[in-house]
Amino acid sequence: MKCRIFGLDFKNPVFIASGTFEYGLTYKRVSNRVGAVITKGITARPRIGNPPPRIIETPCGLINSVGLENPGVEVFCQEILPKMRKLKTRVFVNVAGFTVEDFIRIVEAIGDRADGLELNVSCPNVEAGGVAFGRDPEICAEVVKQVKKRTKLPVIVKLTANFCDPLVVGRRCIEAGADGLSLINTLHAMAFDVKGTKVLIQGGLSGPAIRPFALFCVHRLKELGVPVIGIGGIMSGRDAYEFLLAGAAAVEVGSATLRDPYAPLKIIKELKQYTGWGHDAG
Ligand SMILES: Cc1cc2nc3c(=O)[nH]c(=O)nc-3n(C[C@H](O)[C@H](O)[C@H](O)COP(=O)(O)O)c2cc1C
Questions:
Q1: CATH fold label, 3-280
Q2: Using a 6 Å CB cutoff, which residues line ligand 1?
Q3: pLDDT tens, 151-193?
């Protein structure tokens, strides 16, 4: 199950997605056996996140509105990253900026202390009227360009598919120097409290409900010929294998770990039955 992506060796192509597994320190047995752990989104300053409700179940998925709760990059680097480095897995930091300057500040603070960076371009760009970075190919390319100037680590851009074509944005990110792409992030979603006749939650939809669309998006990026990490509703080895068939070099598992923290281990075991695999994704 070993694979080589962005010039790095991974013990298998099943990674933990950002946001549902904190920093991989609670279930170390799981973290130590996946190919990589991607951290919760790290911002330049600490964030307390959104008020409840933060998670609502929907048919075949969930809507979350966590609001990027995290201690900020300084505390992350001092207190959390050193513990993560003791895990027997690759560590990628999910970098969440609200301005280009934020991205630079976070990446500079991390230095070379991680194995790679996943740029979360789904946050609203406060310098451009709150429109998500991820929808604008030129702003994404600028973020990549600035980040690549300041790091030697592999840089993946985590694309959104909300109101934009990930192929167009992905192509510009690669032209600007990104080493790979991951997708999809959650889809815009909301639910109403019908008794109270008000909005119950507005946030991001994840889980099996988004899987067929995520597969389509991953497949669409095949023509770019770069490593793509598939994300969206992976619950089983079969689901993961479908993403590999769609052209993904690896997958990330998110919501499944909320139902069962050991799900990634089951997924690895099942995936082995589909392929007995020595894989070089470039
Ligand atoms: C509770 C929760 C928190 C998340 N936090 C982040 C985050 O901090 N940064 C990020 O890039 N994605 C975040 N995501 C998105 C996931 O990493 C993933 O892209 C998405 O949930 C789709 O995969 P899944 O269906 O396997 O969960 C979060 C998702 C959930 C459910």
A1: TIM Barrel (3.20.20)
A2: 17-20, 40-41, 64, 66, 68, 94, 120, 158, 185-186, 206-207, 210, 231-234, 253-256
A3: 999 999 999 999 999 999 999 999 999 999 999 999 999 999 9
